[in-house]
TrEMBL record:
Name of the protein this chain belongs to: Vacuolar protein sorting-associated protein 41 homolog
Region (Disordered): 1-33
Localization of this protein: Cytoplasm, Cytosol; Early endosome membrane; Endosome membrane; Late endosome membrane
PANTHER family: VACUOLAR PROTEIN SORTING VPS41, VACUOLAR PROTEIN SORTING-ASSOCIATED PROTEIN 41 HOMOLOG
Entry's Gene Ontology BP terms: cellular response to starvation; endosomal vesicle fusion; macroautophagy; protein targeting to vacuole
Name of the gene: VPS41
Record key words, sorted: Autophagy, Cytoplasm, Cytoplasmic vesicle, Endosome, Golgi apparatus, Lysosome, Membrane, Metal-binding, Protein transport, Transport, Zinc, Zinc-finger
Segments forming a coiled coil: none
Topology of the protein relative to the lipid bilayer: Peripheral membrane protein
Top-rank lineage group of the source organism: Eukaryota
Function of the protein: Plays a role in vesicle-mediated protein trafficking to lysosomal compartments including the endocytic membrane transport pathways.
A single cellular component GO annotation: lysosomal membrane
Compositional bias segments (type: Acidic residues): 14-26
Similarity annotation: Belongs to the VPS41 family.
Length: 823
C-alpha cells in the first residue's frame, strides 16, 4: 500500500526526487527501518497522532481515539478505546505501570496498566497535554498535570480524593509539557516555563523568539537531557537551559533555583522534535523547498540531523533525509520525535508512518565499507572488533577482498593477501592456487607459492607440476624462480642454488647465509663471482672458517681476473693474511689493476722486491721501478730513471727532497746543467735545500734559460723571506729573553723566609741561634740554600762575589748571594 501511495503523489514528489543530492561518501551515523507488523495494520485504517516510548514497550495514539500498546517489533499487545476523536498525548511513569491519556474532546484518563486504580475526567475544552509524575507508582507521588487553556496540577489526597490547582493560565493554550524529577516544563503561546514541584515555585520564563510563527502549526519541542538540563526547540531556534541552585545570599524573595541558557543557536529548518545523544543532539526537522518547475513551495522529506551544540552556534555531524509515507502532505506539527534513553533508539512518528533510527554498530560500519568496496578497511575493522561483530566473518570479508583484487587485475596484491587471509586452511589455498592457474596468471601463481605455507601441501606434487610446465617453456623465469622456492621449501638447497645462479637472482646470497650452504658452493665460486663479484668476495671473506683462502684461490686459478679481485679485497682487509700470495699479486696487479700496484708495493712487507723490480722493468713501469730502486737503496739509479725516462724535473726535485741526500742534489745539478728547462725548475725549487750559488756558478755563459729573470727574482724573494724570518725570530727571542729576565729579577727580589726550622747547609745546625740575644750572620743564596757566614769560605781576592758551594759542586751554575742577615 505504501508503494501505491507513493506512486500517487504526482508532480510534488517528482520535484522532490529531482532535488535529492547524490549519495555522499561520508558514512552515516544512524541506520533506519520502518516499524511494521501491527503498526502497518493500524496505519492502513487510522493515523498516528502521538507516541510514548518505554524501555519495555511502546504506546501509540491515533486520530480515531485509540491507544495501542506495542512491543519493540511493532506487534499489538493491548488496545484501549479512549475516545472517538484524536488522542493528543500519552504519558507514562518511569516504571511503565501507569498511563495518562488526553484527547481532543476534553477527556483525561489516568489508569494503572496492571492495577485497578483509575482517574476519569471530561473537561469543557480540548486537553492538549498530560504528564504523570515520573514516580507515580509511589503513593506519595500520585500527581499529574493536564493542559488546555490552563495548566492544572492534580494530586490525590490522603482520603484517595483528587484535588486540583491551577499552576498557570492566561497565555493561550498549553501545547507541550515534560516532567523530570521535581521539575515540570511546559510551553504556551508566549514561551516556556519551569515549575519546581517541591518548592511550589515557578523558577523561569523563556520567551518565544519568532512570534510570527503560529504556535499551533509550529509547536514547541521540549526534552530533558538530565534532571537539570532542558533543551527547547521552537521554530528554527534551539536553546539549552541549565537549572542551577541560587546562592543563599541571593535568595531574598527569589526562587531557590534559577535557569541559565548555556547554548543558543539557529537551525536551517523548522524543528519538529529533539532528543539527546551523549553530548550531541538529534534534531527532527520539517523542510519546505521551492520547486524549480512550478516555483511553488512544497513539503520536502523531513531530516534527522545529529548536531554538536556550541555556545552560540552548532556543528553538523550528520544529516539524513527520511522518506516517510505521505511526507508531501504533512505539516510541522504532524511529526514527533520520541526516544528510548537506555538503547539510543529514536522513533520518527508521522500520521502514516513510524520510522526507527538507531546508532550504527560495527557490523553496519563493515556493511558500508563493503558497499563502497573498501575491502581492506573492512577487513581491518573486522579484525579489530572481531568480538563485537555478529553478522560478519573475517574469512568471508577476506575472500571477498581477494576476489575484488583479482577482478581488478591486481594479481600480485591478491596473492600476497592470501597468506594473511587464508591462514592454514589447505582447502582454501588449493582453491586459490587453482583459480590463479585457471586465469593464466603465472606471476600471481608464483607469488602465491612464495606466500604459501610449506606445510599445507604435498611439495613433490607441485614440483613435478612446475617441471612439467618447464618442459614446454624451459626459459620461463617466473616458473624457474617458483621451482627454486619449492626446492628451498623441500630443503633441496643444491638444486635451488643452481637455479638462482642461472637466473642471477639477488636472493642467492641470502639463501646461502640462511641455510649455511657454504659446503655446497665450494665448486660454484666462479659462478658466484661472475654473478656479483663484490657480494661474493665479501661473503667468502666473512666466512674464511668455512671456505679457506687457499680453496678460493685454487678455484679461481683459471680466472686470474677474479682471483685478483678476491686477493685485492683480502689485502685491503689485512695486509698479512694473504702474504703467501703477494708474489702472485704483483703479476695480477700489473695485468689487471696497475693503478693499485704502487700502493700495494708500498703497503706490503712480504713482497719480494727483486721479483717486483723484474716485472716492473719488463713492463716498463717507471714509477713503480723508481719506487723499488729507492726502496732497495739504489737512489741514484732511481733519480736517473726519473730524469731520463720521465723527464720530470719536479718529480726529480721531489724525490731528492724525500731522500735528503747531498750527492743526489749534485747528480741532479750535473744532469740538469745543459738542459735550460731543468735549470729553471731547479732555480725555482732548490733555494730552501741547496745554496743556489752552486747552481748559478755552473751555468755556462751565454746559455738561454727560460724565465731566468723570474727564477732569480724568486730566489731573491726567498732569500729576503728567510732574512725576514730570521729577524722576526730574533726579535721574538730577544723579547722572550728580556721578559724572562725581568720575571727572574722580580722573583729574586722577593723576600725569603728564614726561621728556626732552616739549617745551615754546611754545618747542618739550625740557621738561627737558640739564644736570640747573641749576634749572628746568615747568608741566603738565590737557590734558597742558607749558610752561617762563618761556615762559608773566604772569597778570593780576584772575585768578591760569593757562590753557593752546593750548586757550584753539582754544576748547577753559581748561585750568588741575595741576602745577608746580621745582628
Amino acid at each position: 500500500m505504501a508503494e501505491a501511495e507513493e506512486q500517487e503523489t504526482g508532480s510534488l514528489e517528482e520535484s522532490t526526487e529531482e532535488s535529492e543530492e547524490e549519495e555522499s561518501e561520508e558514512e552515516p551515523k544512524l541506520k533506519y527501518e520502518r516499524l511494521s507488523n501491527g503498526v502497518t495494520e493500524i496505519l492502513q485504517k487510522d493515523a498516528a497522532s502521538c507516541m510514548i516510548v518505554h524501555d519495555k514497550f511502546l504506546a501509540l495514539g491515533t486520530h480515531y481515539g485509540k491507544v495501542y500498546l506495542l512491543d519493540v517489533q511493532g506487534n499489538i499487545t493491548q488496545k484501549f478505546d479512549v475516545s472517538p476523536v484524536k488522542i493528543n498525548q500519552i504519558s507514562l511513569d518511569e516504571s511503565g505501570e501507569h498511563m495518562g491519556v488526553c484527547s481532543e474532546d476534553g477527556k483525561v484518563q489516568v489508569f494503572g496498566l496492571y492495577s485497578g486504580e483509575e482517574f476519569h475526567e471530561t473537561f469543557d475544552c480540548p486537553i492538549k497535554i498530560i504528564a504523570v509524575h515520573p514516580h507515580f507508582v509511589r503513593s506519595s507521588c500520585k500527581q499529574f498535570v493536564t493542559g488546555g487553556k490552563k495548566l492544572l496540577l492534580f494530586e490525590r489526597s490522603w482520603m484517595n480524593r483528587w484535588k486540583s490547582c491551577v499552576l498557570h493560565e492566561g497565555e493561550g493554550n498549553i501545547r507541550s509539557v515534560k516532567w523530570r524529577g521535581h521539575l515540570i516544563a511546559w510551553a504556551n503561546n508566549m514561551g516556556v516555563k519551569i515549575f519546581d514541584i517541591t518548592s511550589k515555585q515557578r523558577i523561569t520564563n523563556v520567551p518565544r523568539d519568532d512570534v510570527s510563527l503560529r504556535p499551533d502549526m509550529y509547536p514547541c519541542s521540549l526534552c530533558w537531557k538530565d534532571n537539570v538540563t532542558l533543551i527547547i526547540g521552537w521554530g528554527a531556534s534551539v536553546k539549552i537551559c541549565s537549572v542551577k541552585e541560587r546562592h543563599a545570599s541571593e535568595m531574598r524573595d527569589l526562587p531557590s533555583r534559577y535557569v541559565e541558557i548555556v547554548s543558543q543557536f539557529e537551525t536551517e529548518f523548522y524543528i519538529s522534535g529533539l532528543a539527546p545523544l551523549c553530548d550531541q543532539l538529534v534534531v527532527l526537522s520539517y523542510v519546505k523547498e521551492i520547486s524549480e518547475k512550478t516555483e511553488r513551495e512544497y513539503c520536502a522529506r523531513p531530516r534527522l540531523d545529529i548536531i554538536q551544540p556550541l555556545p552560540e552556534t552548532c556543528e553538523e555531524i550528520s544529516s539524513d533525509a527520511l522518506t516517510v509515507r505521505g511526507f508531501q502532505e504533512n505539516e510541522c506539527r504532524d511529526y514527533h520525535l520520541e526516544y528510548s534513553e537506555g538503547e539510543s533508539l529514536f522513533y520518527i512518528v508521522s500520521p502514516r508512518d513510524v520510522v526507527v533510527a538507531k546508532e550504527r554498530d560495527q557490523d553496519d560500519h563493515i556493511d558500508w565499507l563493503l558497499e563502497k568496496k573498501k575491502y581492506e578497511e573492512a577487513l581491518m575493522a573486522a579484525e579489530i572488533s572481531q568480538r563485537n561483530i555478529k553478522r560478519h566473518k573475517i574469512l568471508d570479508i577476506g575472500l571477498a577482498y581477494i576476489n575484488h583484487l583479482v577482478e581488478r587485475g591486481e594479481y600480485d596484491i591478491a596473492a600476497r593477501k592470501c597468506q594473511k587471509i587464508l591462514g592454514k586452511n589447505a582447502a582454501l589455498w588449493e582453491y586459490e592456487v587453482y583459480k590463479f592457474k585457471e586465469i593464466g596468471q603465472l606471476k600471481g601463481f608464483a607469488t602465491l607459492i612464495r606466500e604459501w605455507p610449506g606445510d599445507l601441501y604435498n611439495n613433490s606434487v607441485i614440483v613435478q607440476a612446475v617441471r612439467d610446465h618447464l618442459k614446454k617453456d624451459s626459459q620461463n623465469k617466473t616458473l624457474l624462480k617458483t621451482l627454486a622456492e619449492l626446492y628451498t621449501y623441500d630443503k633441496n638447497y643444491g638444486n635451488a642454488l643452481e637455479i638462482y645462479l642461472t637466473l642471477r637472482h639477488k636472493d642467492v646470497f641470502q639463501l646461502i647465509h640462511k641455510h649455511n650452504l657454504f659446503s655446497s658452493i665450494k665448486d660454484k665460486i666462479v659462478l658466484l663471482m661472475d654473478f656479483d663479484s663484490e657480494k661474493a668476495v665479501d661473503m667468502l671473506l666473512d666466512n674464511e672458517d668455512k671456505i679457506s683462502i687457499k680453496k678460493v684461490v685454487e678455484e679461481l686459478e683459471d680466472r686470474p681476473e677474479l682471483q685478483h679481485v678476491y686477493l685485492h679485497k683480502l689485502f685491503k682487509r689485512d695486509h698479512h693474511k694473504g702474504q703467501r700470495y703477494h708474489e702472485k699479486q704483483i703479476s695480477l696487479y700489473a695485468e689487471y689493476d696497475r693503478p693499485n700496484l704502487l700502493p700495494f708495493l708500498r703497503d706490503s712487507t712480504h713482497c719480494p722486491l727483486e721479483k717486483a723490480l723484474e716485472i716492473c722493468q719488463q713492463r716498463n713501469f717507471v714509477e713503480e721501478t723508481v719506487y723499488l730502486l729507492s726502496r732497495m737503496g739504489n737512489s741514484r739509479s732511481a733519480l736517473k730513471m726519473i730524469m731520463e725516462e720521465l723527464h720530470d724535473v719536479d718529480k726529480a726535485i721531489e724525490f731528492a727532497k724525500e731522500q735528503d741526500d747531498g750527492e743526489l742534489w749534485e747528480d741532479l745539478i750535473l744532469y740538469s746543467i745543459d738542459k735550460p728547462p731543468f735549470i729553471t725548475g731547479l732555480l725555482n725549487n732548490i733555494g730552501t735545500h741547496v745554496d743556489p750559488i752552486l747552481l748559478i756558478h755552473r751555468i755556462k755563459e751565454g746559455m738561454e734559460i727560460p724565465n731566468l729573470r723570474d727564477s732569480l727574482v724568486k730566489i731573491l724573494q726567498d732569500y729576503n723571506l728567510q732574512i725576514l724570518l730570521r729577524e722576526g725570530c730574533k726579535k721574538i727571542l730577544v723579547a722572550d729573553s728580556l721578559s724572562l729576565l725581568k720575571k727572574m729579577h722580580r722573583t729574586q727580589m722577593k723576600g725569603v723566609l728564614v726561621d728556626e726550622e732552616n739549617i745551615c747547609e754546611s754545618c747542618l745546625s739550625p740557621i738561627l741561634p737558640s739564644d736570640a740575644a747573641k749576634p749572628f750572620s746568615v747568608v741566603v743564596f738565590h737557590c734558597r740554600h742558607m749558610f752561617h757566614k762563618e761556615c762559608l769560605p773566604v772569597p778570593s781576592m780576584n772575585s768578591a762575589a760569593q757562590f753557593c758551594n752546593i750548586c757550584s759542586a753539582k754544576n748547577r751554575g753559581p748561585g750568588s748571594a741575595i741576602l745577608e742577615m746580621k745582628k
